[in-house]
Amino acid sequence: MSVNPVSLVRTKLAAALRGRVAGEDALEVSRQIWTAPGERWFTPEDAIHMIHQDASMFVGGIRSLLLQSLHPLAMAGVAGHSGYRADPWGRLQRTSTYLAVTTFGTQDQAEELIAKIRGIHERVRGKAEDGRPYRASDPHLLRWVHVAEVDSFLAGYSAFGREKLSEERRDDYVRQSSFVAAKLGATDLPQTYAQLQQQLTDFRPELASTNGARDAARFLLLSPPLPLPARPGYGLLAAAAVSTLPVWARAELRLPRIPLADKAIGTGMGAVATSAIRWAMDAPTTGLKGD
């Protein structure tokens, strides 16, 4: 039997993405999540399903890490405890598993994972560069991480998602995401997109351009731990993520200003990259989805 070279490339690309994002046992983990019997928090018709399955999550994920780093206490926790430099893919895989289980898994699977994460959060504490103490279980700090994440996933989907989001669907996504974040211990969470934007504005006085934030940005954008052949594709995603950041966030991270023409280029790069990822993820038997 002859092998279709296009199908072979597609399968290899999907396998590489799967291994990076979800780990070597991604297919088995995916099977356990999707086929386990039991009630689930969300249905395939929900906005959170649509967004969390889309290839634009790759852009939103990079953007969220950049944005989250601007809170000195959140950045101190990441730098001190997540091992993002020594094991960046491990951190990505843990985040991927959390999103997959809480979005697509059974209620029992989600509750079990959240209880485990809350236990870890209770042990994560320390001091930031400025001497202020932090703890990962702080409801206010959890809310910042959530707000930055949800805003980033929505920005990524709005720019590069498969479908146009209505205001109602956007509000649904904010509300559904906040339901999960509340289980983690975050409080006073936004329930609409307008509330999300207001909370993002309210956090501005707490944000700062720290050494840790700028170092994380350089690591994510200039020195990703990737083999050389994978770097051009990642560069497209990174450029797309930067193009969707607010101007003030780019300024805080000391990223280059993006004129209208350059932003259009970044958007074009993101469209190319997410289309390629979606093509690979839609391949049969990959265990990934790019809807």
From TrEMBL:
InterPro entries attached to this UniProt entry: MPAB/Lcp_cat_dom
Pfam families in alphabetical order: MPAB_Lcp_cat (PF09995)
Molecular function as annotated in GO: oxidoreductase activity
Domain annotation ER-bound oxygenase mpaB/mpaB'/Rubber oxygenase catalytic: ranges: 52-272
Highest taxon of the lineage: Bacteria
PANTHER family found in the cross-reference section: BLR2777 PROTEIN, ER-BOUND OXYGENASE MPAB_MPAB'_RUBBER OXYGENASE CATALYTIC DOMAIN-CONTAINING PROTEIN
Name the record gives this protein: DUF2236 domain-containing protein
